[in-house]
Design brief:
Elements: H1 2-30, H2 35-56, H3 65-89, H4 95-102, H5 105-117, H6 123-140, H7 151-174, H8 181-202, H9 215-242, H10 245-248, H11 251-266, H12 273-290
């Protein structure tokens, strides 16, 4: 039980801190290479690494037809649309603002659980959701956040990505997937990478050799593959099977704090007093959602790493 709790804590650290920094590295990379092409390389490479590690660990790689189909659906929801389109939108929206839009995810998850399962919202969930909305209002009411004339399109597409990712979270928590989280993640990455490659060709993106990328883009891609994809996405899949989906979704409240700070310190994006206050409100919302009275599974399931 103690090891299980440590795994949960480590996994939450990954999706909170590492994913919070991926907005910065995606922004750097997407300014030089096309977004779908970026995603295809990132996820296919990460998938190969994960499957290789699983092979070395002698984990069973065989999956059923139903598991393969569900893995493909998850790969599309999370990686092709949820991430690929989101990175495309970063061309028109600042990293901090994009992360703040993503912070609406817990609200989407709560709504979907209510719609799909008829799940009654507890009082603390409602309070947390309202605090999240208040924090969002404080953030988006700042005119300085808007980056360009195309920001409205970028904002709309990001919100559709958040909805897609939220549904994917609910889907994965219920779907029949490979029992081992490492294997499941690896197959999702490989399928997502292939689908993104096809999408990149369909939209006639220009493919540029990694040897011709700048050092900043090469370093960003390395971080996105190893930490953003292999480490954090594996942790994400682990959490979806071991804690409630709405708790996993609270990463969308913390990620903006990390993204705002990194955008301010490294990309010269403006960080105002109002943004700081809004961040505190958002984190308070995380506390209320996480402190709901609910029996949470923390023991890893059979076959998990």
């Amino acid at each position: 039980m103690k090891n299980a709790k440590l795994l949960v804590i480590g996994a939450f650290f990954s999706i909170y801190i590492i994913w919070g920094s991926t907005y910065l590295f995606n922004k750097i990379a997407v300014t030089e290479i096309p977004p779908l092409f970026l995603g295809s390389i990132r996820f296919f490479s990460a998938g190969l690494i994960i499957i290789l590690v699983a092979k070395l660990m002698k984990l069973p790689l065989k999956v059923t037809r139903n598991q393969l189909i569900n893995t493909g659906i998850a790969g599309f929801l999370f990686l092709v649309y949820g991430n690929g389109v989101f990175v495309w939108a970063l061309k028109y929206v600042n990293t901090g603002f994009a992360a703040l839009l993503a912070s609406t995810q817990p609200l989407f998850v709560l709504f979907l659980l209510r719609l799909i399962d008829g799940k009654r919202l507890q009082q603390k969930s409602i309070i947390g959701a309202l605090l999240g909305l208040l924090g969002m209002y404080l953030l988006i009411s700042q005119k300085q956040i808007t980056a360009s004339e195309d920001s409205v399109l970028g904002i709309f597409m990001i919100l559709t990505c958040v909805l897609t990712w939220s549904y994917g979270s609910v889907f994965v928590s219920k779907a029949d997937l490979p029992k081992n989280h490492l294997v499941s993640t690896g197959y999702q990455m490989l399928i997502g990478g292939v689908l993104l490659s096809i999408a990149s060709l369909v939209f006639k993106e220009t493919w540029v050799s990694p040897l011709n990328w700048s050092y900043k883009t090469q370093g960003s891609m390395l971080f996105l593959i190893v930490f953003g994809a292999v480490v954090a996405f594996t942790a994400f899949n682990y959490l979806l099977k071991n804690v409630s989906p709405e708790k996993v979704a609270t990463s969308a409240y913390v990620n903006p704090i990390i993204a705002l700070f990194l955008g301010w310190s490294l990309l010269n994006e403006q960080l105002t007093t109002q943004s700081i206050v809004a961040s505190i409100v958002l984190l308070t919302g995380v506390y209320f959602i996480n402190s709901r009275k609910r029996l949470v599974k923390v023991a890893p399931k059979k076959g998990s790493f």
